[in-house]
Structure prediction request, 98 residues.
Amino acid sequence: MPASAVDRSPSAYAQAHYAYGVAQHCGLVTQGAEAGFDRLERRLAAEEALDAEGRTNARIAAGIAFAMEYQNRGLGGSRLWCRTEGQEAVRRFEAVPE
Prediction:
């Protein structure tokens, strides 16, 4: 998640949502990645003690960061984005333990 896209350093929860957004945009999300993301999301929300408002704010920050990065890359840049950040996000989510 680009640091310039949010006012302060994004939380791990927001970073996970940003990465999941990239993987979704690229059409790379597998069942294993989706399940891993769900586990990671729950764990990070608990670790960061995020209430409903905190989770919403983090998702909004991730969405804004995603939109800004998408505009920054353009259509041609999305291919590289998918091969790098998108594939890495899927590997990360698939590796989240049960």
In short: DSSP finds three helices and no strands in the chain. Residues 2-7 have pLDDT under 50 and may be disordered.
